[in-house]
Amino acid sequence: MVSIKIILAIISILLLSSPLTPAQNFKVGAKLEIFGIVDKKVRDYQTNNTKFVISPAPSIHLSLNYKLSDSYSISLMPGVLFSFLEEDFSGYDLTIFGSRSFEESHFFIEAGINLHLNGGVSHGTSWYSEASLKLIPFLFAGGGLKLSDVASVDITFHLPLINEYGYDSISGDVYNVSGPKLIYFMTKIGFQVLF
Q: pTM for this structure?
């Protein structure tokens, strides 16, 4: 895994080599994202199945953006991912990515890494559910549209580098189903403002 020192060194080199002054190219803002995951876990008394689930609560991020040139920028976004529907997949995110904008069309593409620290929870008696306190790195790519000088929307597709995020077990008189909780894919639709 790439060390933090290497990432910080690359960011420092990029910032120092930018032809524009640092203050005029630094922007701060916020981003709200609705996300959906494809995961596999115990969902009833008979099966351990795969399902696409959309969170009803958005994740919230602080956006720190630095414009390297007219077309390229890098961003750092710490945030919180809420998930009331799938309570075992929630926690903290740290997203680092680069983007390329196409000024004539207002479109942009982006790619990077999303480090998700999943919150550990466990509960139940006959239905035992556990979500591991675990760092799950995602590689992602996506694109979006600039709505104005300060607002944009995007969609990103995330592939986890680690799939397991917990464990489920349901037991009773005539049934016994157990298995790991696995995440296969995540999609996010976001709205961002930068000032």
A: 0.83
